[in-house]
Amino acid sequence: MGEDSRAGIEYLRGDATAPQGKGVKVIAHVCNDLGGWGKGFVVALSRRWPAPEAAYRRWHRERSGNDFGLGAVQLVQVERYVWVANLIGQRGTRTGRSTGAPVRYEAVDSALARLGEHALRLGASVHMPRIGCGLAGGRWELVEPLVTARLTDRGVPVTVYDHD
């Protein structure tokens, strides 16, 4: 089917905002905990659908009364069979002087566990870029086992897209 399959994850070249396959699909990506949206994968998401950004910004703005924070997940339906999952897995953003990556692996792990519940309930497959590894500065060899444990080992099909 795909170009490569390791640990139950299918790897494809392509665009994660145009997920392949049939059925219900959830596009997962990592957001920061500051309410910032505007660089990286979210730019492509917002070009296709304005709803995930609007929902994320509202979620952050109203955070005193909701679960917004590291490890949380927000599901936004963008088409009949397509959802976007905003995963809060990044503490702040990288600035010129900061050291260390903003990704928080334990938050990504918690968010993926919650995402797994949603995906199983929806009967959905999950589609993503190499989450936490772009602007969040994480390493895929640390994220991949979390994706495997929280999603594929529980029977959720996962496709990871590498942009050309």
TrEMBL record:
Which residue ranges does UniProt annotate as crossing the membrane? none
Q: Which reaction does it catalyse?
A: an N-(ADP-alpha-D-ribosyl)-thymidine in DNA + H2O = a thymidine in DNA + ADP-D-ribose
Q: Domain Macro: where? A: 1-164
InterPro entries per UniProt: ADP-ribose_metab_enzymes, Macro_dom, Macro_dom-like
Tell me the superkingdom of the source.
Bacteria
Signal sequence coordinates: none
Q: Which SUPFAM superfamilies match?
A: Macro domain-like (SSF52949)
Which PANTHER family does the entry mention? Answer: ADP-RIBOSE GLYCOHYDROLASE OARD1 (PTHR12521:SF0), PROTEIN C6ORF130 (PTHR12521)
According to UniProt, the name of this protein is Macro domain-containing protein
